[in-house]
Amino acid sequence: MEKFVKILKKLFPFTIILILVYFVPPIFILVQQEEEVIERMLTADLMILNPGISFIAAMAFGVRNGFHWYFVLLVVILFFLCLLFIYGFSFFGFLLIYGVAAILGLYLGKSLKEGRDEMYL
């Protein structure tokens, strides 16, 4: 139980960031009146903003904590919830893209952490 609480404390700030990135922009985008504008903005959100932020957050987590699979699981679960509530299952393939972005970010962050740790030895 104590280990689980420790993991949750590590994940908490990243969870807040990912929730804000996954859920807030689509809500503001859907307020738009023109369907063409909504389609372009949602596409940019799904293809550029969300995977980019997932990669950057994963890299930051990797630099601080190393490579842990539970961060990838967090990214996939949060985006799955976003699919349920906002986009629908037609965008289910993006789960793979976000998971890969998180894995690459974690790997790069872990590599940067190891390089930084070796530099200070």
Quick rundown:
The chain is mostly helical. It has helices at 2-29, 35-65, 69-87, 94-119.
Task: Provide an overview of this structure.
- With 121 residues, the protein is an all-alpha fold.
- The protein has a domain at 47-88 and 95-121.
- It is built from 4 helices and no strands.
- The chain has helices at residues 2-29, 35-65, 69-87, 94-119.
- Helix 1 runs parallel beside helix 3 (69-87).
- The longest helix has 31 residues, at 35-65.
Order of SSEs: HHHH
β-strand number = 0
Mean pLDDT: 89
- Overall geometric form: elongated
What fraction of residues sit in β-strands?
Answer: under 5%
Distance between the termini: 34 Å
Please give the count of helices.
4
Largest sheet: none
Helix content: over 70%
Cα-atom radius of gyration: 16 Å
Which stretches are low in confidence, meaning pLDDT under 50 for 5 or more residues running?
none
Based on secondary structure, the structural category is mainly alpha
